[in-house]
Design a protein that fits this description.
This protein has about 260 residues and is α/β, with parallel strands linked by helices. It has ten helices and ten strands. Helix 4 links the parallel strand 6 and strand 7. The chain starts with 10 loop residues before the first strand and ends with a helix. This is Aldo/keto reductase.
């Protein structure tokens, strides 16, 4: 691995003219000093996209790491999420997130998962639109939504989610899902990419061994080449750096097709 990670620079275009780095650092399950150290290590390695959530209970630690990193706030794309059980106090939840994160806005605020119930997802999405109008969130999006629900909230408000974050890996690849998001001009973002047996899958391991890369690097690179956002998480500084070191190689078309086929 290179001493300085070769971090991919590709981004996804967002509705308001912003750019979302395809590589982000996930912070789920990182708490306390571990969260501060890991987030700091990610920023030092060159990540410029941090993903957290109210329910992760680590926004203060992520905010501290960013503040202490020496990296300018405007250089880092910050995402947080609102749990649907706070739908009736969504804007207060976001303001609390901003205080914890030590910033006056997030670059992306996501509905963490659907609320359910007649009209309730639309009601919450209206609060998200208000947050964007107030400048508290530059972009707003959703997580764990299907295309029909994306259409429902878009049709009701005239504002489409900029991003949909879903569980994603070669084992879950579905060309129809990719196409549905592209047709709607919604950025697809994957989470839990390194879970579910992906790191041990013989196809992934075989490609990694042939290229002299780690299975995690193959999985991150696969996302980047598809134009899908990926947010690998680790508490280990060496793995954090390795997971970002994917800018210096490409998967062949055959390798991408072999990985895509795992979702079949």
């Amino acid at each position: 691995m290179a001493e300085t990670p070769d971090v991919p620079t590709e981004t996804a275009a967002l509705p308001n003219g912003g750019a979302m780095p395809l590589l982000g650092f996930g912070t789920w399950q990182l708490r306390g000093d571990d969260a501060v150290r890991a987030t700091g290590a990610a920023l030092e390695a060159g990540y410029r996209h941090l993903d957290t959530a109210t329910m992760y209970r680590n926004e203060a630690e992520v905010g501290r790491a960013l503040a202490e990193s020496g990296v300018a706030r405007e250089e880092v794309f910050v995402t947080t999420k609102c749990p649907p059980d706070r739908a009736d106090r969504a804007l207060d939840t976001l303001r609390a997130s901003l205080e914890q994160l030590r910033t006056d806005h997030v670059d992306l605020w996501l509905v963490h998962w659907p609320v359910g119930g007649a009209g309730r997802d639309v009601e919450l999405w209206q609060r998200f639109v208000e947050a964007q109008q107030e400048g508290l969130a530059r972009e707003v999006g959703v997580s764990n939504y299907d295309p029909a629900l994306i259409d429902e909230v878009t049709d009701a408000t005239g504002v489409r989610p900029a991003v949909n974050q879903v569980e994603w890996s070669p084992l879950l690849f579905d060309a129809g899902t990719v196409a549905a998001h592209r047709e709607r001009d919604v950025v697809l973002e994957g989470y839990s990419t390194l879970k579910g047996g992906t790191l041990e899958h013989p196809t992934v391991v075989g490609i990694a061994e042939r290229l002299g890369r780690t299975p995690a690097q193959v999985l991150v690179r696969w996302h980047v080449q598809h134009g899908i956002v990926v947010i690998p998480k680790s508490a280990n500084p060496d793995r954090i750096r390795a997971n970002a070191d994917v800018g210096g190689f490409e998967l062949s078309a055959d390798d991408v097709a072999a990985l895509d086929a795992l979702g079949g």
